[in-house]
Specification:
Helix content: 25-40%
CATH topology: Rossmann fold
Largest sheet: 5 strands, antiparallel
Number of strands: 10
Radius of gyration: 17 Å
CATH architecture: 3-Layer(aba) Sandwich
Strand content: 15-25%
Number of domains: 1
């Protein structure tokens, strides 16, 4: 369960202002977040994950008030509970694909990198069709392949929550639908929650709920 209440958020030195009274996401649900660019959809994902914290209000995720945690606590909570598929991938070009996928387990002591995790990385890579790319470097991959590496990394920790920022934006139509089916099946099998920011209205029929940012909050 994810609940955001009485949220007020503003970037420093910016006119952007995000405000809304309440927004909730049920466990095991698939929610699409739509709306014009610049309305704060990605900001919403960053608030849920604890990358950002609101100036006012509360963000409760899995029974924890994320914005009351310290920076290190939020980071550990994010890495152990949330799979974040970033729009810009956030891959490290000096690491091989396999090391990018395993990165969270290398940088956080709360997560143990062992043989089973390595095997899981290979299994997910195979599922996403990038098993032959594991020893390559990101700058040798296409945009669509880089996107699939980012998705593989997000699923590796078996998260209870998946936050996906335009996860199909760099994929061709065939792979776009394949990736969404993989995410939907993952949510169904594990009872996880999926929150996806998307501009692709062709995908909306697969979601349980749709949040339209134009109707959600005050923007100034």
């Amino acid at each position: 369960m994810i609940t955001l209440k009485n949220i007020s958020f503003q970037y420093q030195n910016s006119d952007f202002h995000l405000e809304f009274s309440e927004l909730a996401f049920q466990s095991g649900s698939k929610t699409a977040v739509i709306g014009p660019s610049g309305f704060g959809k990605t900001t919403l994902l960053n608030l849920i994950s604890g990358i950002y914290t609101p100036q006012k209000g509360s963000v409760a995720v899995n029974g924890k008030i994320v914005n009351r945690m310290s920076d290190s606590e939020r980071r550990t909570f994010r890495l152990t509970n949330i799979g974040f598929i970033f729009q810009d991938f956030k891959l490290l070009d000096y690491l091989r694909v396999v090391d990018n996928i395993l990165l969270s387990f290398r940088i956080n002591k709360a997560m143990t990198l062992n043989k089973s995790i390595r095997m899981r990385a290979e299994e997910i890579a195979s599922l996403l069709g990038i098993e032959d790319k594991l020893n390559k470097y990101p700058n040798k991959l296409s945009q669509g392949e880089r996107q699939r590496v980012a998705i593989c990394r997000a699923l590796l920790n078996d998260p209870s929550i998946i936050l996906a920022d335009e996860p199909t934006g760099n994929l061709d139509p065939e792979n776009k639908h394949k990736i969404m089916h993989i995410l939907f099946d993952y949510v169904k099998d594990r009872g996880s929650s999926l929150i996806t920011v998307t501009h692709d209205h062709e995908l909306l029929q697969g979601f349980d709920h749709i949040v339209d940012f134009k109707e959600l909050y005050t923007y100034s």
